[in-house]
Fold:
Amino acid sequence: MTQSNSAQNLAVFDNMVTAIAISSDGRQVIAGLGNGELQRLDLVSGKPIGKPFQIDEGEIKAVAFSPDGKYIVSAGLKASKGFDAIIRLWNTQGDSIGDPLGEYDGYVVTSVAFSPDSKYIACGSTDTKIRLWDTTGNPIGQPFGEDFRPIKSLALSPDGKHIVSGAYRTVRLWDTTGNRTGGLFQGHDSDVNSVTFSPNGQYIASGGDVTVRLWDTMGNPIGGPFHGHEDTVLSVAFSPDSKYVASGGMDETARLWDLQGNLIAKLEGQGGFVSSLSFTPDGQFIVIGSGKTIKLWDVKTGR
Structure:
């Protein structure tokens, strides 16, 4: 195992980094901040690209780039209304496109994701529902989801045919019309805060309680839980080659695992919760949102 307390600071903000996303070409990262701002950055220099754009004055909960590079979708809170959520679609210059995709009175939109063809957006909310929208703002089909379990996380499969969702103690797989497929993924002891498909479509990783878990797409666990985090796991991500899983959590660490659950490397002392992380498309770096910073962690050198 490689242990490191250092990673390259890409950017430092005045507010907490609450969500990040990387463009499919690997050139940009967008940061969602605790004050409702979104800021695009050059992934090499860390320099801002354009001016910040703002959904509201409440915290950004989730953000995603479209695979074709044309759009950004963000979910945040209305500062004036507590836990009311709002979803907006933007172009990459920061111009809001059309009306909000949705406004949720009394609920939080915890996750957003684009389909691989960039034609629709999936959103998961604490109202227990998953909703699909096209990029013109029209809803697709009917909402679907868990019974009495708020959706804490979701992700789309690489072929765009399935959605995986995380809720309290459970992970579920759905088709895009809302039918459940596979079994109920059980094993976590609390909220499943992050789920993701492997790029090869063979595996699902989930993070919740203090563990990371690996599953096949029928809901069968692969091996045992990945143990090591000392507090709640908030984010998981697969490497582009589907051979590794990165995780981050409230213990202020980021960790790199192989698919057998062996800890490959650990990054400590991040100065805040690791709220979001993602591999760069070339697999060389893990981009980490932690505290008020975005950092680059070199996978090979551990720095």
